[in-house]
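FAQ: What does the model actually see?

It sees only this:
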Amino acid sequence: MNRTLYSCLFYLALPLVALRLWLRARKAPAYARRVGERFSYGLPTMQPGGIWVHAVSVGESIAAAPMIRGLMARYPTLPITVTCMTPTGSERIQALFVNEPRIQHCYLPYDLPCAAKRFLDRVQPKLAVIMETELWPNHIHACSQRGIPVALANARLSARSARGYGRFAKLSAPMLAEMSLFAVQTRTEAERFLSLGARPETVEVTGSIKFDLTIDPELPLRAAALREQWGARERPVWIAASTHEGEDEVVLAAHRQLLESYPNALLILVPRHQERFGPMFELCQQRGFTTVRRSSGDPVTAQTSVLLGDTMGELLFLYALADSAFVGGSLVPTGGHNPLEPAALALPVIMGPHLFNFLEISAMMREAGALREVDDAEGLAEAVRQLFELPQDARKMAQAGLKVMQANQGALERLLDGLGRLLNQH
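And it is asked to produce this:
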């Protein structure tokens, strides 16, 4: 399939795209808003001529934030347009850069030739930066036609994704050849991009910018003060973060087992997607757990057994409240979420077996003794129980995680240098 056929099929599929938006809007009403932006209509007023950064959703937006701040510091006169595809990603971007007038934001229009043209007419970027894996043939081709360099930042490509691109070589190979920089996390992923058609001079192994996460020193202090306020300084607290459908039941079953040994244990449960906050609160109550919603502002008391993290932009703070962390998306085949966030807060980390989004990072952490893998509720309950019972082991795991982070930092600087070279050439 070449790009012309791909575009024709995309136009033909627009009724299905509209149906998907409508179905999503039934669960998350925000999908029904700003629909025009998805076709390059009704875009906000923008200052043209800066840098365009695309981060598909929440995780990529958080990963992109240090890079965007680095670009703002290096290029103080350039506006930066940040796009995403989801309402939660949009909320996160707006929260991250609420007081930054140079940051412009809208949804990325669908990958239709006419929509890509209208978008670039409005934004007129000097450089396009895509986070991680979100590759759109028509947007990339439209940039190439206008001489706008396109970089893939913090690039990753699983074996499964590489096989998918390989099946559509007539579409993916020309697209990759039109790109100017692949700032890749690992040598393995670099080889995959090269085998699919990326030009050798454009592929650089820069490492993962997720290792360059910096924690505000005030964050642990605020968390300690809140635990003191709860009267929970000595209370065993664990967090299950970024959980997906099918995991919450496992987490709650593990918590039920833990309560047999530690009746005062507190679970902080943080579903990954906003539309699941309400159903998860109901599930916790149905299972008989005294539950407080973080958004309610109600106090956590000795009787509270679950705190539902139903606020946006607070994940690091919620991690800082806990003694150990289970990172979700890993007990179901989603591929796992970022284990470096809890590691940066000196927490021992537990994950399930599905880690293909973070294969290299999780392998490093496992080898260093910073990550424990579990398969089910019994394994999860046992892992958390051992960390409660053996605080010295928990501290060793936490220190090992910090060492892994420190040993692999520097990717952000290498990425910014690579983007700088593209800007200087433009």
